[in-house]
């Protein structure tokens, strides 16, 4: 048998890109060897900076990610980009179109780009993304950029796995209101006002600064900075990467890096147990006693909470 | 103690609106009495038509819901409207603005309107919506209209609880592509092309008909109809409600009503167990042995899958 977990992980740790790609596919497909793979990988994690990039469609996130990547590469850092698209729950598709722009990095062995879409019922997208991040971390990428489009609940779940969250906005009417509404204010660490040559840019910057003032101030508080950028002209990117670095330093200084790490790992454990529950239940529904419970439920002889009592947890 | 579950459910079944509102709040707040409440309610469910209404923001969903409600009322049917807004995970807010338009029904005791937003960590929005639908069903509403905005994964989860899904679109460029991308084609039972006085309406109708032809045809297959509407001028609403009735008849005729009911109940059981897992885990993380496991995990001494083994299921 080729592709034994041990061999795959060994090759991946040695820098073999195809092995890396295969391991990520195993995460996407919820492979039976996942527990073994993660056991082998996990001791090698804990080094990468994980930066989430989000914002409304058309904000220029991909171009910004492209420019940041070039900048990190110039500093000799290895960069992985995970583009997550939760909006295609049926097709399993992902943000592929935008990826074409990244072709300038395609010959660079120290840049790895992967799109993730939703597949399967068991194990959500944020679970898969967390495990992909762990793999890329073990593969010794210095920076992992997790890009999500849109502002739904799934996207927010995904962003929680990042250490630093950059929210990209463009000067268009109503954008800042959308930010409030979507709860992005609460998870943003750095704001980028992209396409800042547009007339309304300063107004948006002002609004964001005013509203970010609402967060509480203690000695370890982080003053959410707002950076104007024009990704297509490479304007403000150095400053933006500086602010990301500032936030990373703040995480270490304040002790919040450890808090975030523990949260990440707790969430991963919860996701593993949740996936096991889902698989176990799908199996139990197919047994004769499981079918009997569902029939009783359907005939209103028992209620869903009683039925739940009749199924074992995991 | 006032508001005992038994008393509340009894009053709700007798048509007491405040008791109904309190029971729904208990679902939203994941009250400790929920299991008892659902046990008392559940035998009274199974009568309502549950219709999901979705579409992009600005498609005119609320006006359409308003017109459909007026039509159902004219036929003597009792109507409940659940407006679900998953895009506000932090504020707990919901689509309240649009609800103002519904004020024409506010004096009508046979129309009940409720907005649901995301609250709390344990128990997702689609879980709460399912239980609210069960309560409204027990409260003998003939039609329950579940309105969601947007096209994210959470919205699609919510729509799966509906028997009939109406997707509302407007003739604007790219709308039909969005429908494909978001997987709405797979869950739509009826399309409404609203604001159909706009020039591109016929083009959109044609596109939808062409694409819906892609679904498989067996003897029980449902040919997805497309209805042009102008909700603001009350045009096409009678026809739309006719198509919803056709689909409801189709569900009964084909045996798919029972299939959908069983799916709904299985999903409810899964959500209950998932919520229990989440609560149990949150508790276990706070125990001394749980903290020890998390510490080992954080020091990379064990991996997340091993840690999961150390926590009991539920």
Concise summary:
The structure is a homodimer. With about 325 residues, chain A is α/β, with parallel strands linked by helices. Chain A folds into three domains: about 1-45, no CATH class; about 45-255, 3-Layer(aba) Sandwich (Rossmann fold), CATH 3.40.50.300; about 255-314.
Helix and strand composition category of chain A: alpha/beta
- The helix fraction of chain A, in percent, is 40-55%
- Percentage of residues in DSSP E strands of chain A: 5-15%
Identify the strand order in the major beta sheet of chain A.
3-2-4-1-5-6-7
CATH homologous superfamily classification of the largest domain in chain A? P-loop containing nucleotide triphosphate hydrolases
Q: Spans of chain A with pLDDT under 50 lasting ≥5 residues? A: 88-98
Average pLDDT figure of chain A: 86
Main sheet overview of chain A: 7 strands, parallel
**Chain pair with largest interface:** A-B, 59 and 59 residues
Write the H/E string of chain A, N to C.
HHHEHEEHEHEHHEHEHHHH
Radius of gyration of chain A: 21 Å
Overall morphology of chain A: globular
Label the CATH architecture of the largest domain in chain A. 3-Layer(aba) Sandwich
As for the CATH topology of the largest domain in chain A, it is Rossmann fold
